[in-house]
Amino acid sequence: MNEKFEVILCIVNSGFSESVMDAARKVGAKGGTVINARGTAAKEAEKIFNITIQPEKEIVMILAKSNLKNDILHTLYEHVGPNTLAQGIAFALPVDEVVGIQENK
Amino acid sequence: MSNKKQNEKIKDKEVFNKRNNKPHPSNIKKLKILITIVDRSKSLFYLDLLEQFEVNMQMVILGKGTATSEMLGYLGLAEPEKAVLISCIREDKIKDIMATLQEKFQKIKNGKGIAYTISMSSIIGVLTYQFLSNNQNIKK
Question: CA-to-CA distance for B80 and A48, rounded, in angstroms?
Fold first, then answer.
C-alpha cells in the first residue's frame, strides 16, 4: 500500500458525532470511530460562578487518505466548526504504517 | 569491504558507549504510538497479541463505529461497538507487529480492524523511556 494516510481527530460537543460523520462522508470519508471524552476548559468560570458544568465531548477519529484531508477539514470547519452548536475542533496527524484498510475497487 | 566498515562502525559505537557511559544516540530506538481499532469482544485478544512484542504499556478506550449499516455488511464487520487500543511500541518491532496484525485481521472471525502508527516526537525521563521501550540495558 503506497498511499499516504492521515488520521483526523475532531472534538465536538456530545451528540454531534453524527453531524461530523455526515459532513465527512460527503467528501469521501468512509467511516470513523467515536470516543466519549470530557473537556476541561471551563474550570475558572466554574469556580467563579460556583456551578459545575459537565463538558461532555465526543472525539471522532477518521482515518483517511492524505488527498482527502484538506476537503474533510474544510467541511468539518464549515459544518461543525467553532461557530456552530457543535463547537468542534479538528486537526490531522500524519500516520506512518497502516493495516486493515480495504482498497477500493 | 562493507562488512569491514560495518565492524568499524560497531566498534566506534562501543568506544563511544564506554567513553561517555551512555549509549550512542543511534543505539536509542525511537518509540511510536500504535492505535488499533477492533471489535470490543476482541480487545483482550489483541492486547495479549501485542504484549508478545515487548509492549509494556497499553490502554483501551471504548469507542463506537460510525459506518452505515450498509457499509457494515459490505465490509463484514459485525458490531458497531469498538475498542481503541493505544500501545507504545519500539520502532524495530513495527514491521513484525504490522505483519502479524494484518494476518490476524484477515484470518480471525470477527477480528477485522484498523491499525496505524504515529511517531512520537519527544519523551522525557530515562526511566519512562526504559519502561516504554522495555530496554533494560541503559545505565542511568
Answer: 41
Task: Test A100 with B114 for CB contact under 8 angstroms.
Answer: yes
Closest CA to B35 of B12, B10, B13, B63: B63
A97 touches chain B (CB under 8 A): yes
Q: Evaluate whether residue B11 is within a structural domain.
A: no
What is the domain-level CATH number for residue B65? 3.30.70.120
Tell me which of A1, A96, A98 to substitute to probe the interface with B (most B C-beta atoms closer than 10 Å): A96
Number of Cα atoms under 13 Å in the Cβ half of residue A23: 24
ipTM, 2 decimals? 0.76
Residue A31, classified by CB atoms within 10 Å of its CB into exposed (0-12), middle (13-18) or buried (19+), is buried
Q: What residues does each domain of chain A span?
A: 5-94
| Count, residues in chain A | 105
- Looking at the complex, does the CB of residue B86 fall below 8 Å from at least one CB of chain A? no
Whether chain A has a CB inside 8 Å of the CB on B132: the answer is no
Contact B101 A100 (CB under 8 A): yes
Domain interval for residue B76: 31-119
Structurally, how many domains does chain B consist of? 1
Query: What is the fold, at CATH topology level, of the domain defined by A5-94?
Result: Alpha-Beta Plaits (3.30.70)
Tens digit of pLDDT at every position of chain A (105 positions): 568 899 999 999 999 998 999 999 999 888 899 999 988 766 777 777 776 666 789 999 999 999 999 999 999 999 998 888 888 899 999 999 999 887 654
Q: What is the grid cell recorded at B33? A: 504510538
